[in-house]
């Protein structure tokens, strides 16, 4: 169970990453604390990679009660922990820190969040994953749970993508890596659906906003009735990637449902309470639309 504070004291949580100014985690969790009557404080800890070790020492010494972990620390934080949950071990990345008695543990709620808006859909025959970071690991674990047979990873860092493919090789009938320049060659291979997932920051507010990892002509050349585009970016809600997919008639999933679902799982782990997810999505959607 997560560490707890006396009722008279605030529990302190935050999001650990770099940069984190664009994160909506503080808004969401602060709102959820208020909704459920939790005396909690949730802040942002902007921590460059070179300062991670010092921050983790301070995390233990304070101690803070828990954290969300985002880019670029989802894998780098693991050596500073006392253990991982089975889910985090499978994924090989962490997005949640919590205390289990006196042990600082790492968990991952990204897979649960990723699957949330896909309920009821038949699994694709082929998937293209753009990016090879911690979020891509959660996506691959989710695809393995859906028994997707074939996956291609396209990333700018070839070595990182190849390691990711090797780590998940036993989970798929075929998992391949292509260079970022060759990503446009990946297309459906059978009569089943084809899903494309953007796990990169391309299109994110403050990071190449307005850019898409795939061009308009590529979307238009594929059969829309069989294709789904899923962008893990949630700010802005309507990314260039999703706009191009919509113009080509593709089905789409934005990153907000995943963000809310993974945050709700964190909130439940820390507090034992449920986050009202429909209201949470509305809160954030209204903020993004303002």
UniProtKB/TrEMBL annotation:
Source domain of life: Bacteria
Domain SDH C-terminal: 255-278
InterPro entries membership: Aminoacid_DH-like_N_sf (IPR046346), NAD(P)-bd_dom_sf (IPR036291), SDH_C (IPR041121), Shikimate_DH (IPR011342), Shikimate_DH-bd_N (IPR013708), Shikimate_DH_fam (IPR022893)
Enzyme Commission number(s): 1.1.1.25
Molecular functions (GO terms): NADP binding; shikimate 3-dehydrogenase (NADP+) activity
GO annotation, cellular component aspect: cytosol
Catalytic activity: shikimate + NADP(+) = 3-dehydroshikimate + NADPH + H(+)
Pathway(s) the chain acts in: Metabolic intermediate biosynthesis; chorismate biosynthesis; chorismate from D-erythrose 4-phosphate and phosphoenolpyruvate: step 4/7
NADP found in the keyword field: yes
Residues annotated as the enzyme's active site: 74 (proton acceptor)
Positions bound to NADP(+): 131-135, 232, 255
Pfam family, one: Shikimate_dh_N
Domain spans labelled Shikimate dehydrogenase substrate binding N-terminal: 15-97
Keyword list, A-Z: Amino-acid biosynthesis, Aromatic amino acid biosynthesis, NADP, Oxidoreductase
Subunit architecture: Homodimer.
Function: Involved in the biosynthesis of the chorismate, which leads to the biosynthesis of aromatic amino acids. Catalyzes the reversible NADPH linked reduction of 3-dehydroshikimate (DHSA) to yield shikimate (SA).
Sequence similarity: Belongs to the shikimate dehydrogenase family.
Protein name: Shikimate dehydrogenase (NADP(+))
Encoding gene per record: aroE
């Amino acid at each position: 169970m997560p560490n707890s504070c006396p009722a008279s004291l605030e529990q302190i949580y935050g999001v650990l990453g770099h940069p984190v100014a664009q994160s909506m985690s503080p808004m969401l969790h602060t709102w959820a604390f208020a909704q459920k009557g939790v005396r909690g404080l949730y802040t942002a800890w902007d921590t460059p990679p070179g300062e991670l070790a010092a921050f983790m020492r301070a995390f233990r010494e304070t101690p803070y009660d828990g954290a969300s972990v985002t880019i670029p620390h989802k894998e780098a934080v693991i050596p500073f922990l006392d253990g991982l949950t089975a889910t985090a071990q499978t994924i090989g990345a962490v997005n949640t820190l919590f205390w289990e008695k006196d042990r600082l543990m790492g968990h991952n709620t990204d897979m649960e969040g990723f699957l949330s808006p896909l309920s009821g859909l038949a699994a694709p025959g082929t998937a293209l994953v753009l990016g090879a970071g911690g979020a891509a690991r959660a996506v691959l674990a989710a695809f393995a749970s859906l028994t997707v047979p074939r996956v291609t990873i396209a990333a700018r860092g070839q070595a990182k993508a190849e390691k990711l493919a090797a780590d998940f090789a036993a989970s798929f009938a075929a998992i391949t890596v292509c260079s970022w320049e060759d990503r446009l060659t990946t297309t459906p291979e059978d009569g089943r659906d084809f899903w494309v997932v953007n796990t990169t920051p391309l299109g994110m507010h403050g990071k190449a906003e307005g850019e898409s990892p795939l061009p308009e002509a590529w979307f238009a050349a594929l059969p829309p009735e069989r294709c789904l585009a899923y962008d893990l970016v949630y700010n802005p809600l309507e990314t260039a990637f999703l706009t191009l997919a919509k113009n080509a008639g593709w089905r789409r999933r934005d990153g907000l449902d995943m963000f809310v679902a993974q945050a709700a799982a964190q909130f439940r782990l820390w507090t034992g309470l449920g986050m009202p997810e429909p209201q949470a999505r509305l809160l954030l959607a209204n903020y993004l639309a303002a």
